[in-house]
């Protein structure tokens, strides 16, 4: 994942910013005694991206991946509109409890830029509905140059998004975060529609750490910088998630990327180990192929 990549990550202040003032109020409304629903995964299951992760002789990458993680950020659907048969194949390769988080196809978000997209959106949602109970939360990622001047276009698409399908949204243009009035209106739109406001933690775009939750879930896309700071950054996330959980957070969707996908499973294993300890969870800690359990990164 090259978005937000910097030449010298050691010079970046990776401190997580304070929560947006509205986050505590949002979480308070969902505070209860329900179990913490946590999903942690990578962005891809491709052997070429996750080098060294698969044991020798692995015949099907998704089947093995799904024994090590409980979810996948499904980027394959961004590059090609999924069909029913493909979705069913993916679903049947994974165990009960596994979740797919498919990215909406680029035809909708990047090429058509949300213009006249109701038909392809319905096609997309009809296809991913085949995941049934294994469907997590699909997400819409907008182009870097999709700016607030097109807010009404985004509002129209979100308000008419197919019912019964959850959605998270990621805006990238700097103006969405720099203009407080725009940021407020956008967040309130998502909150009113019950959609998640994706948080991106990447070195070169610290503004995307808006820390504004719009519902009972936190959808976080974490991008390691292939640097020793990657571990301490994950530890800082544990601290923040503990705060959110105490305040009322019900669900966590946390996806681990790297600028160069070398050690994403290692980073995820560290994060999962800490999550299990801090929250009394029993998530599987991924192994690293023939090298046995993952122990450390640096």
TrEMBL record:
<dbReference type="InterPro" id="IPR036520">
    <property type="entry name" value="UPF0759_sf"/>
</dbReference>
<dbReference type="Pfam" id="PF01904">
    <property type="entry name" value="DUF72"/>
</dbReference>
<dbReference type="InterPro" id="IPR002763">
    <property type="entry name" value="DUF72"/>
</dbReference>
<protein>
    <submittedName>
        <fullName>DUF72 domain-containing protein</fullName>
    </submittedName>
</protein>
